[in-house]
Amino acid sequence: MSLILFVIGIMMIYTLFSTYQEKNENAEMSKHVEDVNGKPLMHIDISNRTDEIDGKSKLNLFFKSLQNGISWDSGSSESLKDPFIFRSFMDRFKSYDDITKAMNEFGLDHCGLILGIDFTESNKWQGKVTNKGNPLHYIGHGRNHTNPYQRVIEVLGHTIQHFIARENNQQQPPPQPTQHRMNGGGDHRHMGSVKVKYNHEHMSIPCFGFGDVVTKDHSVFPLRKDGKPCVDFIDVLGSYRDTVASVVLSGPTSFEPIIRKSIEIVERTGRYHLLVIIADGQFVDERPTARAIVDASSHPLSIVVVGVGDGPWDILQQFDDWLPQRKFDNFQFVEYAHVLKQCGGSTKNLDTALALHILMEVPDQYKIVCKLGYLSRKRSKST
Fold it and tell me: Which of 42, 108, 269, 275 has the greatest number of beta carbons closer than 10 A?
């Protein structure tokens, strides 16, 4: 009984706190993101956009995490376990092994991967602090001089390539490796400073760029010049290098086109997919992205944004936790520089640390996708 009274008291305090906060916000220093029917998707405070969460936000996040912990684990009410009630997932895994065990437990042995890369103009100045003053797409000489985009791609290749679904279309041969990856001979290729074995069982990794002078904020372009998916992560790195050499950065930033494209892929294949977007996250108008994230929650698609550059990251952090009209928490934000700092500034342990953060919510997301019937719905359409 005392526990119930404690929970009720906490929730009342949270409600009063939220009400007080909303009433005292300056209308000229805030804005609402609304859906097409005019209903608010989220409230974004733009009065103090920094990459540090202020005390009020921390308190708000504390109450939210407490509420989520009670509603997700408590067995006192069946309604609290209803999978159709939105809850944000807590970062509960401590190691990469914990995540892989959870994936196996939930029956997730592989999934599709889609990669999106930000080619907006803000990449030119977003590396002043975190990329030694260099533009984020700057490519130095030698294997140890990789930019943040290359490093994230390498980490994906080192840690989760076994998890990515292989090409299973037997009617047409898989796309051939592009010429940039044929250097080196034999069955081994170098990815960064690590020598990896070439896998003859091709993967299919759709890779897209967005935000350049052609696509701007309304479409995407394939990373490979022939428009086909990349066959492995070395192919991804080579296609990225080729693109950097010729692309003209522009903008503005919007994740809507890459999210809409990913929804098309998920609908066509009927498989669960992980969309990884690598971006500097400098929005002019975040509303289209917010709407796309909400729409994506009606599909078996998880979205992870790896933020590279100097920030601020408050908009992406709020996307992570405060879009309650979603069917499930389908969005995870990871700050690359923060993870690197946790590793002591060394890239030695970055692979598993970054992979841990990227996949942190995937087991829970896949579990709720199954509960919502998204995968069975796709299978019933194909039969």
Answer: 275
